[in-house]
Amino acid sequence: MRVLILILFLLVNTPPAFSTMSVDKFFTAPQLLTATVSPNGDLLAILELVDDKQVIYLQDTNTQKKVKWISIDEITEEEAAISRLVWLDNQHLAANLFEIKEGVKDLIDTKGEQSLLILKTPNKGNVKIYSVRSKGELVDSLPNTPNEFLYAKTGIQSKVYQLKINKLLEHGKRANKLTRVDGGQFVKSNEHTSIDGYVVEWFLELDKSIRYAALYNRDGTLDLVDVNNKEETKKLKSWNLKDLENAEQFIVPVARSAEPGSFYALDKAEENTRSVYLVNYDSNKQELIYQSDSFDIKQVITDPATNNLIGLRTIRNGLMHFEFIDSKNEELSKLKIESAISQDLSRINTLVYSESYNQVGQFDFYKGKKKQFTVGHRYPKYLNQSKAKLELGEIEVAGLNIPYLLTYPSSPKKKMPLVLLPHGGPIGVHDNPYFDHTSRFLNQLGYAVLRVNYRGSSGYTKEFEEAGALQWGDQILNDLHTVTEFIVKRPDIDSKRVCVVGMSYGGYAAMMLPIKHSEFYKCAVSIAGVSDVALQATSPYMTDRQFKWTKKYIGDVDNDYLALKAISPVYHFDKLKTPLLLIHGEEDHVVDVEHAYRSKLMLDKHNKRYDFTLVPEAGHSFSKLEQRHLMFNQTQKFLAKYL
User: Fold this and answer.
1) Could you say which residues form the signal peptide (predicted)?
2) Residue 570 near residue 582 (C-beta atoms within 8 A)
C-alpha cells in the first residue's frame, strides 16, 4: 500500500480547559443567516433566526448600533421564509418572501408563492413596507439609481420594467379608486426590455443591460437567446426538456459569470443538484468549478459588481442554508473559508464571511483591509471553545488515492477511542475541513473522529465520483475499512475501541462494516440507515429520474436482486457480534422506516444486542432541534456504554 500523508495542524497552543457541552447546548439553530451592505456602506441589513422566526436587523456600520427592523411574523401569518435580501438604494431593502402553501416536511420540494417586499429604513421607529402585487421577480436593484429597480413579468410576451418604489402601495393596503395596483407602472413607457415568449431567466451584464435570456417554448424546449438585437434574437443553445428524464447531464445556465460570454450553470440531471459549472456556449466549453455538500442547490449567488461566484442558497439538514464560497481557492485542501460576500459601491466597505474547523461561521465588517467589528456568528460563538486538531491525508486503496479527515481533541491525555463517521449519499457528497457539528461534538467528548471521502465522493474529479458506481457494498466499504485500519495503527489511537456511526448511506455502512469485520468494531450506530438495498432501489418516493440514477449507481433490482440482497445488512444480522443502535424517523421519505422495522425483526430473530429508537414526525434530516437532540443524546449514551 502506497501511503501519502499530508498532516495539517490547526492549533499550536493548548486551549484553556472547558467543561463538556451538553447535546442541547452544542446543537442549536443557526443564528445569523446572511447579511448585506448598503450602497454607501453606512448600513447592514442582517437576517437572523430568533426563536425559529426570521428577523431582519439594521446596523449602523459607523456607530455599530443595531436595531430590529422587522420580524417575519409581522409581515405574514403564513409559514414563510425570506430567501434573499438586496439593497435597492440607501433607504430601501428588497426581500424575497416565500410563503409556503403546500409541501412536504423539511421544506424540501416545497410549493409556495413568492412576493417582493421593499422595506424602508425606519423613521422614528416607524417601518414602511411596500410590495409589488404583480407576479414577477426582481431582476436588478439599480443601486446607482435611487428609488428605482428592474422587475420582470413573464407571459406570452416577457418584459422587464423599470419601476419606482415611491409609486408602489404599502404592503397589505388595498387599492382604491384613487390608487392603482403597483402605481400603474406596468406600461410601455417603463419597459426596459421585451421579448416574445416565456422567459424563465434574464441575464444581466455588468453595465445592467440585458444581453441574454432563457426562453421556454410551448413545444417543451428551452432556448438560451441573445436579445442584443431587438429585431431578431440569436439562439445560442437549445434543450428539449423531455430529454431530462434520460439525460446523463442536463446543464442549464442560471447566472452570468465574470468571464465574457460565460455562465454559471447547474446540472439538473443530478439526483440532487450539487454541482456548479462554468459554461461558454460560443466555445462549447464547460468546467466543473464547485460542488456543494448540501442536499440541493436552490440559487447561485454572484457579486453584482463583478459577477464572481460568492455563494449558494441551498437546502441543508432540511432547512434553507446560505453557503459561502472562497473564490480564491475552492479546493477541499484549503482549511479556511474567507469570502467577501457583500460590498458597497466604493468596494471599500466589505462584509467578510470566514469559517474553519475550529471556528463557526463568522461575519466581519471591514473598511479597506482593516477589520472594524464582528457582525455576528452563524452558530453560538461559545462552540469555538472546544478546540480540536485536524489532519488531512490520503492512502491508496485498490488503485485510488482515498482522502480522509481525522480530527481529535487537542490535548488527549491517553489513547483515544476512534469513531468512524461515513458520510451519506454515497455518490456526489463529501466531507469538508470546515466546521462540522457532529465531529466537533464527538471530539469534545474525547473521541477521535475519522471521515473518509471514499470513491464516489464529490469535490475531487468526475472520474473519482464515477468510481463509486455499483460499489455500495463493495469498494466503498473497503475504502472505509482500509483507511480505518491504517488510522488505528497510530500510537495515539486505541485500536481496541473503534465504533462506526453513520446516517443514511453512512447508517448502511454502520451496519454492514461490523458484519464484515466482526472483531474490529466494538459498536455501531445506524441513523436512518438502509438495511435492505433492494427495498431502497424500489422506493415509492423516487421519481423516474431517481429510478434511473438508482440503476446506474446502486443496481437494477430486476436483474441484480440476488446481488443487492447479498450486500443488505438485514439478511446478514446472524453474523453480527457488535452492539447496534438503530435510530429512524417515522416520517422518513428518503429511507423508509420499513428499513428499521425489518432490521428489528431480524435482530430479534437472531437474539442480537441492539437498541431501537423511532422518532415521531421526524423525516430523513431530523431537521427539528428536539429530534436532533434525541438522536445525539441516544448516540452519546450508547458510545459511552460500549466505547
Assistant:
1) 1-19
2) no
Listed in sequence order, the residues at least 6 apart from 45 whose beta carbon sits closer than 8 Å to its beta carbon are 35, 36, 38, 56, 57, 58, 69, 85, 87, 93
Dihedral angle computed from the Cα positions of residues 137, 140, 141 and 147, in that order, rounded to the nearest 10 degrees = -80
Question: What tens digit of pLDDT does each residue of 378-395 get?
Answer: 999 999 988 999 999 999
Domain ranges of the chain: 3-11+14-21+383-642, 31-196+332-379, 201-325
CATH class assigned to 3-11+14-21+383-642: alpha beta
DSSP string, 292-346: -SSSEEEEEEE-TTT--EEEEEEEETTEEEEEE--TT--STT--EEEEEEEE-TT
CA geometry: angle 567, 570, 573, nearest 5 deg: 100
For the residues 516-532, what does the mean pLDDT come to? Answer: 97
Decide: 593 and 617 in contact? Cβ < 8 Å: no
Pairing of strands 234-240, 157-164: unpaired
The Cα–Cα gap between 171 and 155 comes to 24
Say if domain 201-325 classifies as CATH 2.120.10.30.
yes
Pairing of strands 493-503, 523-527: parallel
The percentage of the chain sitting over the pLDDT mark of 70, rounded to a whole number, equals 93
